[in-house]
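Ticket #4471: structure export looks truncated?
Reporter: QA, pipeline team
Priority: medium

Steps to reproduce: submit the single chain below to the structure queue and open the exported record.
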Amino acid sequence: MDVEELRSVPLFASLDHDAAMKLCKFLSIHDCQHSAVVFRANDPGDAMYWIELGKVRISITDADGHTVTLAELGAGDFFGEMAMLDGHGRSADATVIGDARLAKLTREDFLSFINSDPRITLEMLTALTRRLRRTDDLLRHRVSRNVNEEEAARLTLADRAADKIAEFGGSWKFIAFSVGFFLSWMALNTWLLFDKGFDPYPYVFLNLVLGIIVSLQAPIIIMSQNRQAEKDRLRSNLDYQLNLKNELLLSDIIHRLDELAKKMRE
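Actual output as written to the record:
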């Protein structure tokens, strides 16, 4: 990777020519074949990578055993920086899509470089914040979908029936059916059957039927609404936990970068 390619990476766009030249000396180039695994979750975080050519998929495995793609990175993108900063295990899997060429920077070399150019600290913090926001949006969608799947798995036959009845009772189809039924009832008992109608005017039996329908429909609709409210509370609780986790993660990143800045000033 030459100086101009390195400075095209957003993380190092602010570096001058001399600083970029110095960083290039720390990089080692690796050619990777299709489907090659760069690292897996919980592997030691001893290096970060830049993509010179090709693509890399960043993914995790959720609690249900499904593979969730967090990002597909292309030329000029970087990854693996979080584990390299704190020295802990990797938080996701990185897999090459097609053939790729990666530039690798080890943790030891990175610390040596950052001591010589403190501006990289601010650039790293900005890049990490952007990536955290993208991950937060993705996880919000994922949590919402899991709530719906979990709720659907727990539905009983009575719950499904209540939802269907409540959905039909609040639609134009129900209104059209009701109007048609009432008109047919009145026409049948007033004009078609003449004096032999089973429910002559003022349609006492029709009023009884309507009263029974209303008395049954109201609790069914309330049951459906209560279940929807419970699902909303569950989703709100998961959103709160997600926001809290991201807040703690961002605070930890800022704390670690502050520690690096203090070491550079000493």
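Status: closed, not a bug. The export was complete when the record was re-opened. Leaving a note from the reviewer for reference: The chain has eight helices and six strands.
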